[in-house]
């Protein structure tokens, strides 16, 4: 995409944007509830690891394209769903706990409007532009 305007063309808006944000809130709530139901690791572990996917911000040191790839890899639902499946198959409470924390992070980000990033810059997401306009 060559300009800021082009980067906003792939962003959703209106009711669909609202639905995706509500979906994120539901993912957060369900992940949190499942973590509680499992009687998983202590809550301080949940709170500390809830921010772990944001380490992917360091990808932006390599430029906006590399940053978007790193951010999207850590903020897509594919990772936590895969880890959840592995944890279930291995009957591993640790892997299940980590998957739920990761899913909660993704859901919380979506709920507050942080979407997957475009390579044009951190502020350009599939949920619309974030930050200063």
Q: What keyword list fits this structure?
A:
single chain, 133 residues, mainly alpha, three-stranded antiparallel β-sheet, 3 strands
Query: Count of helical segments?
Result: 6
User: How many separate domains make up the residues?
Assistant: 1
Low-confidence stretches: none
| Strands, count | 3
Net shape: globular
Major β-sheet, in short? Answer: 3 strands, antiparallel
Provide the structure class.
mainly alpha
Instruction: Give the topology string: H per helix, E per strand.
Output: HHHHHHEEE
Amount of helix: 55-70%
Radius of gyration, whole Å: 16 Å
Head-to-tail CA distance between termini: 17 Å
Strand numbers in spatial order across the main sheet: 1-2-3
Strand percent estimate: 5-15%
Could you report the average pLDDT, rounded to the nearest whole number? Answer: 91
Assembly type of the shown chains? single chain
């Amino acid at each position: 995409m060559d300009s800021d305007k082009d980067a906003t063309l792939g962003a959703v808006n209106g009711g669909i944007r609202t639905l995706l944000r509500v979906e994120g809130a539901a993912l957060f709530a369900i992940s949190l509830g499942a973590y509680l139901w499992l009687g998983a690791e202590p809550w301080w572990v949940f709170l500390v690891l809830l921010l772990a996917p944001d380490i992917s911000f360091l990808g932006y040191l390599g430029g906006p394209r590399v940053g978007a790839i790193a951010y999207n890899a850590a903020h897509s639902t594919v990772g936590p769903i895969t880890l959840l499946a592995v944890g279930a198959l291995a009957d591993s409470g640790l892997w299940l706990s980590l998957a739920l924390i990761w899913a909660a992070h993704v859901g919380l980000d979506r709920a507050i409007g942080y979407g997957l990033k475009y390579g044009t810059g951190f502020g350009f997401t599939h949920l619309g532009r974030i930050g200063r306009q």
